[in-house]
Amino acid sequence: MHSKVLKVRYHLLDEIRGFMVLCMVIYHGFLAVDMALGGSDIALMLFDFFTPLEPIFAGGFILLSGLCCNFSRSNLKRGFILLI
User: Coil, strand or helix: which one is 59?
Assistant: First the structure.
């Protein structure tokens, strides 16, 4: 007989991780607009708004990725493949 391994997917973690990635993409998009506009009032306003949020986006993504590593079977193998 074949033993079936039940894989449980936590969709909430996937959704939060996707939201964090989207936030980082939006932040970097506004940063690119700021660089393109070269210090205009709108660019400075966007930069001032998003600068304090950047560590929250990045830290939340790193924290969530670390939590999700507990659900993986071969973190060492995956890390070695990424290193190569």
Answer: helix
The distance in angstroms from the start CA to the end CA of the chain is 37
Q: pTM of the prediction?
A: 0.64
pLDDT in tens, 43-57: 777 777 878 888 888
The whole-angstrom separation of Cα 53 and Cα 24 is 10
The angle at the Cα of 47, spanning 52 to 18, to the nearest 5 degrees, equals 65
Instruction: Pull the structure tokens for residue 26.
Output: 């939006």
Distance from C-alpha of 63 to C-alpha of 58, rounded to nearest angstrom? 9
User: Contact at 8 Å (CB) between 15 and 49?
Assistant: no
**Biggest CA pair distance of the chain:** 69
- ∠22-24-30 over CA atoms, to 5°? 105
